[in-house]
Recover the amino acids of this structure.
């Protein structure tokens, strides 16, 4: 009894590790900081840009960093993103029966990403960290998805790849599919979108 299929962005719709690494390392290089460690990379890959800047820079630098990153923009880093194979065919099939949504901790870059990959019309709703009071792991983004479509939490299925996605789904009461991460607790695990074709048949 599903009504809505919602997707995380980074690590699910796209492989964005290289893009995120290039983006934050450019910020650090501009302020004469060394490249990120693997642990820092893991953090920024799933958290909001505000939290990431707070981790990567001293408090006294953060205002200047945020000013520079807005000037720098994200467009030049989109070329490093790789769209997940079978995403577009999956969305085409899903939209015949379900509403589709994005629920992400991205902020002001999400609109540009969807536009660049010709995905703008493939989602009925896009919820970023700017649209809610609290980003994941809080349930706010998934609560907004359910409320928008007047769906019970159990009628929403969320596809994510991180512990923040898992925690948000559990807190919201939605169904959760773990994407390419066997360490997560989930209702189902998948490694590609091809597996979802069979799930929704």
């Amino acid at each position: 009894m599903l009504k809505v299929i919602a997707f995380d962005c980074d690590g699910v719709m796209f492989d964005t590790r290289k893009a995120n690494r290039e983006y934050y390392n450019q910020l650090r290089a501009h302020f004469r900081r060394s490249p990120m460690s693997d642990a820092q990379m893991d953090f920024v890959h799933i958290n909001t840009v505000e939290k990431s800047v707070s981790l990567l820079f001293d408090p006294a630098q953060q205002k200047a960093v945020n000013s520079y990153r807005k000037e720098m923009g994200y467009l030049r880093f989109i070329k490093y993103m790789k769209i997940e194979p079978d995403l577009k065919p999956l969305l085409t099939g899903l939209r015949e029966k379900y509403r589709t949504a994005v629920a992400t901790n991205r902020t002001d870059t999400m609109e540009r990403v969807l536009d660049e990959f010709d995905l703008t019309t493939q989602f009925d709703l896009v919820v970023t960290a700017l649209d809610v009071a609290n980003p994941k792991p809080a349930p706010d983004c998934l609560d907004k998805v359910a409320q928008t479509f007047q769906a019970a939490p159990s009628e929403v299925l969320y596809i994510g790849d991180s512990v923040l996605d898992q925690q948000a789904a559990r807190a919201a009461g939605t169904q959760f599919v773990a994407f390419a991460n066997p360490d997560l607790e989930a209702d189902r695990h998948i490694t590609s979108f091809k597996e979802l074709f069979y799930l929704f048949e």
